[in-house]
Amino acid sequence: MIYVAYVFMILGCFFAFAGTVGVLRMPDAYCRMQSSTNIATLGTLGALLGGFIFALTLKNTSMALKILFIAVFIIITNPVAGHAICKAAYKSGVKAEKLTCDDYGRDFPNE
After folding, report:
1. Tell me: the pLDDT tens digits for 52-84?
2. Residues 37/78, Cβ–Cβ less than 8 Å
3. FRET pair for 3, CA 20 to 30 Å: which of 13, 29, 35, 48?
4. Closest alpha carbon to 45 in 99, 88, 8
5. Residue 9 phi, psi dihedral angles, 5° rounding
6. What is the model's pTM?
7. 3-state SS, residue 92
């Protein structure tokens, strides 16, 4: 059971590394924001899931419950925060290199 926790922690480290490479290699601010949101969501959740399984193997239910609450809050807040930051960047005039569709444009029709 402890090896499953290690696998999830390694998986979280992989997503954090892949997201970091994405932040460095992506062409514009919106793509970089998507990569950084993946770091915060998938990388953290992998580590938290591994910690949750590790806490259950130690029979430490209070630590497992705290980790579970942290994971739920991250699932709720990270995508919403990433969307809000992208929308603020669009409204402030940061342009993407190539857009195939502009869904934010209908939210701000006068700009």
Report:
1. 999 999 999 999 999 999 999 999 999 899 889
2. yes
3. 35
4. 8
5. -65, -40
6. 0.79
7. coil
